[in-house]
Amino acid sequence: MKYSAGLASVLGLLAGARAGTTIWSGSFNSYATVADFDNWSWSNEVGEYQWYIHGTEPTSHYLALDPSFKNPADTSETHGLKMSIDSSATWNSQMERCELIPQTTENLGQGELFYHFSIMQNGTNPPESTLEHQIFFFESHFTELKYGVSPSPTDLQWMVQEVPYWSSPFTAGTWFNFAYDIDFSAGTVGLWASTGGAPLTKVAQNVAASTSTNSEDFHVGILRIVNDPTPEDYYVSGVYIETGPITTAIGSGSSGSSPSSSSASSASSSSAPASSASSSTAPVSSTSSAAGPTQTQYGQCGGTGYTGPTTCASPFTCKAISAPYYYQCL
Ligand SMILES: *[C@@H]1O[C@H](CO)[C@@H](O)[C@H](O)[C@H]1NC(C)=O
Ligand SMILES: *[C@@H]1O[C@H](CO)[C@@H](O)[C@H](O)[C@H]1NC(C)=O
Fold this sequence. Notes:
Residues 293-330 form the CBM1 domain. It is a single chain. The chain is mainly β. It has two helices and 20 strands. The protein folds into two domains: 21-243, Jelly Rolls; 299-329, no CATH class. The chain has helices at 5-15, 59-62, and strands at residues 22-25, 49-53, 63-66, 80-85, 96-102, 112-120, 133-138, 144-147, 155-160, 163-169, 176-183, 188-195, 201-208, 218-224, 232-243, 294-295, 300-302, 311-312, 318-322, 326-329. Strands 1, 3, 4, 6, 11, 12, 13 and 15 form an eight-stranded antiparallel sheet that branches. Bound molecules: 2-acetamido-2-deoxy-beta-D-glucopyranose (2 copies).
């Protein structure tokens, strides 16, 4: 089902911060220590996650929990998860893998659903850009993030059946928030994204895809192709799946998320793969002198139909998030 941005925001106000209904929560709050992930087995399917796609070392070699491992904007979670791969992390093949799978009896593959997650790499044990990574993917790869592949190996790229539609440099220390917008009825998938504590905006319109899941093949984690000794660490939080309308606030359910969102979601129906452009600047003429109004961090600063301030407060600059529709001060 579709909602206009206006209706969605009204519904959002009525419902409080959270807009849709969460049908599966991948919060780590119930995991006091990473040993809790080992509670799960095929004969004892407990907790939020199936945990079997990992290497031969103890769980604590691949997973760690800490309050500093979550997106700090996500106040609904007590801690985040660090996920690590190295040469010991092979599972069933020569690929290195560290992946959690939702443990639920819900149908995760009907109607329009939003698959939310946040991911960060902090510069220590960063991802190797010469190796292919599959990140938060489905078995059929109808939607996924990739890193280390063409055309932008140093970018986090959102792909639909191997075709890139959006990308951004995988900047160290920056939390990237995403929601896969999957319409299993229509057979389409789009992408919402933001960084830090900014609300999600739609950065790629839905395109046709072979959307399907058996509700046990959403891979929350990382797969690196070919065995390589270089260790890599990723930080993950904010994992949940909801029905529409989408919750755009990060860490919603918490207090006072500012409602300055929902501007970009009305973008048009361009079908061409919109390559990132996240490093280019907005096509706005910046008058150097006159100190007009400036936009604050994460605020919109350009895009089709936008009439507000196009200059960002220092030290932020206006970046194309989804040219030509949406530009943001980052
Ligand atoms: C895992 O099992 C332990 C011991 O039975 C229990 O204390 C803990 O709450 C369980 N964790 C989860 C997440 O179910
Ligand atoms: C990254 O996080 C780890 C904790 O997992 C910490 O020890 C390290 O100092 C951090 N690196 C940077 C560059 O912040």
